[in-house]
């Protein structure tokens, strides 16, 4: 099993239908990519609206922080904040309508509007749509293994003690997982145990519980189990968690070359200090950044990972 200190983001699925990790990394979620050139005027207008929504959210957040942190605010601050909220509500309504349409016409969007869908996901999947969109992206909605879930929970797994030991260390500050008898800890144990029975070669490995925990924050345990199965098998995350951890070694090796190519001075400095890549980057791959970034940021990374 991986060391407990290891934590977060991810090797990308190795399949012709997915892009490599450098693709997502090289274009930040908030930036238009070269794909924008192929979009229609209506689609470009839509993306501009979403960019404006992100800007207003940030401005509104800053304004509220400013009001809470200082007594010197004039009435105009309240007005601008109110105005931003008003504009935001219209954009949020547009976003809800749009994502509702995407979910209902999923197959068409995947086949005919792939570039636009990619841009929209990079700008962030709305919270209330994440559960269904992640299931659709991973093709986990109709997995046969879902029917086995209740039976798997009745069985015993050789990994149960290990899983129980680690449950309390997974998102210890998050309300859903706080407390030994919390619902979050119980369903997290269930999903990890069920997977250890389905994939006996991997069984249970530290780090994977953070991924399952994030899924459980979005959806019920049966659905979370199915998405996790797809992530491990179709997105090849299980290769990172195999006992030899050879795939993790490969990811570290590839990352070292990227570091050498993109940030040569930093690479030389790290080497001079004997600061090995595995000391800090192992956790990125094993938990898809979930123990590295604040949860809202890590969730946005996860949105992109699920698609790309």
TrEMBL record:
Pinpoint the Rab-GAP TBC domain residues: 124-308
Look up keyword Metal-binding and say if it applies. Answer: no
What's one GO MF term for it? small GTPase binding
Check the record and name the InterPro entries matching this protein: Rab-GAP-TBC_dom (IPR000195), Rab-GAP_TBC_sf (IPR035969), Rab_GAP_TBC_domain (IPR050302)
Task: Return the annotated region ranges for Disordered.
Answer: 1-45, 58-84
Residue stretches spanning the membrane: 279-302
Recorded hits in Gene3D superfamilies, A to Z, give:
putative rabgap domain of human tbc1 domain family member 14 like domains, Ypt/Rab-GAP domain of gyp1p, domain 1, Ypt/Rab-GAP domain of gyp1p, domain 3
User: Which UniProt keywords are given for this protein, alphabetically ordered?
Assistant: Membrane, Transmembrane, Transmembrane helix
Alphabetized SUPFAM superfamilies for the sequence: Ypt/Rab-GAP domain of gyp1p
One Pfam family from the record: RabGAP-TBC
Stretches of Low complexity bias are at: 1-36, 64-84
Signal peptide range equals none
Is this entry keyworded Membrane?
yes
Q: What is this protein called?
A: EVI5L protein
Source species: Neopipo cinnamomea
Gene name, per UniProt, is Evi5l
């Amino acid at each position: 099993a991986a060391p407990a200190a290891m934590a977060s983001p991810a090797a990308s699925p190795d399949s012709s239908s997915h892009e490599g990790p450098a693709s997502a990394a090289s274009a930040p979620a908030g930036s238009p990519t070269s794909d924008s050139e192929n979009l229609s005027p209506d689609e470009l207008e839509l993306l501009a609206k979403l960019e404006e929504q992100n800007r207003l959210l940030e401005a509104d957040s800053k304004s509220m922080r400013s009001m809470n942190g200082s007594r010197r605010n004039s009435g105009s601050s309240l007005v601008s904040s109110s105005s931003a909220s008003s504009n935001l509500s219209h954009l949020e309504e547009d976003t809800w309508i749009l994502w509702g349409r995407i979910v209902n016409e999923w197959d068409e969007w995947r086949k005919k509007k792939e570039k636009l869908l990619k841009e929209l996901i990079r700008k962030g999947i709305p919270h209330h749509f994440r559960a269904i969109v992640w299931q659709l992206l991973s093709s986990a909605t109709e997995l046969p293994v879902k029917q086995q879930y209740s039976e798997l929970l009745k069985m015993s797994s050789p990994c149960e003690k290990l899983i129980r030991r680690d449950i309390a260390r997974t998102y210890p500050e998050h309300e859903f997982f706080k407390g030994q008898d919390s619902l979050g800890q119980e369903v997290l144990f269930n999903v990890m145990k069920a997977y250890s029975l389905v994939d006996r070669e991997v069984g249970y490995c530290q780090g994977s519980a953070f991924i399952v925990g994030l899924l459980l924050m979005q959806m019920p345990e049966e659905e979370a189990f199915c998405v996790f199965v797809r992530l491990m098998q179709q997105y090849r995350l299980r290769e990172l968690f195999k006992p030899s951890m050879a795939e993790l070694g490969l990811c570290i090796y590839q990352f070292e070359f990227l570091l050498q190519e993109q940030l040569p001075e930093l690479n030389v400095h790290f080497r001079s200090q004997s600061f090995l890549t595995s000391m800090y980057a192992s956790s990125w791959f094993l938990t898809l950044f979930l123990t590295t970034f604040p949860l809202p940021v890590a969730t946005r990374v996860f949105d992109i990972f699920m698609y790309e």
